C-alpha cells in the first residue's frame, strides 16, 4: 500500500478578490505530515474546511511577497497560538519577509507559547531548502515582477517490500529483515547466498509534485519539473489576453499546458485565475487542447498522487 501523498487546494484565485475564489494556498499531506504552500487571505478558514489536522502542519513555504500569497499568514499564526500550539512553526521565504513578519509578531502575537523559526531562501537559485526521511523540497526559480520561486516536493524511495512466504521458507530471523529491505542478500548457514530479489518486491516509485507560482512563461523550468506526477502551474489568463499576461509577468493557460506537455508530466492542474473570467471553462479547454490531462484548481479539491 502506497503512503499518503495528497495536494489540497485551499485557494486558487489571483490578486483581485472575488466571491468565487480564495487567494493562493495549498496544503500537502505527505505520509501524514502537512506542508503549506503560500498563505493568502482566508487560508485559515479554508484550512478548517479541509478537515486537515492543524497540529500536523509545521512548515509553510511562501513563493513570493505579493499579498495574495502571504497576507493570511499572521492571522493563521495567531490562531495557532489561541489553539494552544507549542511546537515550532517553520517559515521559508525571501529574506525581506523576516523583518515584516517579526514586526507583526511583536505587535499582534506577544508572548506566544510557540516559536516561529524563519528560514531565508534565495528564489533565484535551485537549492534544497528542506528535507526529512520522507521528502525533500527544492526551489524552482521563476520570472515574476519580484523575486519568486516555485517548490518541488520529491518523495524519498521507501524500502522494498518483503516477500513473507520466502522469509518463512528460508527461516530468516526478524533481526535480518531491515537489511534485506535495504537491498542486502541473505547468506544461509551453509554459505548459500539467497539473492535479494528472491526475498523482496520493488517498492512504489517515488512521487514528485511541482508548484509553479506566479511567473512569466518560463521554459527554463522544464528540465526541473520533467516527468513529475503532478504539476501545478499558474494560468492567470486566456491566450487571447497574452499581452496582458506578458505585461504583468503571468502565464496563459495555453502556455502552462505547453510547459506540461514538453516536460512530460503526468497531470497538470492550473490555477491563480484572473478575476476577469466569470468561469474558468475557457481556460480549461484551452489547456486541454495542448495537454488533455489537465484539471482546474478549485477550493477544497483534493488531488491524490
Distinctive features:
7-stranded mixed β-sheet, Metallo-beta-lactamase, Chain A, 305 residues, alpha/beta
Number of domains: 2
The CATH homologous superfamily of the largest domain is termed Ribonuclease Z/Hydroxyacylglutathione hydrolase-like
Count of beta strands: 18
**Helix/strand-derived class?**
alpha/beta
* N-to-C SSE string, H for helix and E for strand: EEEHEHEHEEEEEHHEEHEEHEHHEHEE
Number of helices: 10
Sheet-strand content, in percent, reads: 25-35%
CATH topology of the largest domain: Metallo-beta-lactamase, Chain A
- Average residue pLDDT: 94
CATH architecture of the largest domain: 4-Layer Sandwich
The first-level CATH class of the largest domain is given as: Alpha Beta
Largest sheet: 7 strands, mixed
Calculate the terminal CA-CA distance, rounded to whole Å: 13 Å
Shape: globular
Measured as a percent range, the helix fraction is 10-25%
Widest beta sheet: strand line-up: 6-5-4-3-2-1-18
Mind explaining what this structure looks like?
The chain has 305 residues and is α/β, with parallel strands linked by helices. Helix 9 (253-263) packs parallel to helix 10 (281-288). The strands form 4 sheets. Strands 6-5-4-3-2-1-18 form a 7-stranded mixed sheet. A 7-stranded mixed sheet has the order 7-8-9-14-15-16-17, covered by helices on one side. The chain folds into 2 domains: 5-158 and 204-304, Metallo-beta-lactamase, Chain A (4-Layer Sandwich), CATH 3.60.15; 161-201, no CATH class. The mean pLDDT is 94. It is 25% helix and 27% strand. Helix 3 links the parallel strand 5 and strand 6 (116-120). It is built from 10 helices and 18 strands. The relative contact order is 0.14.
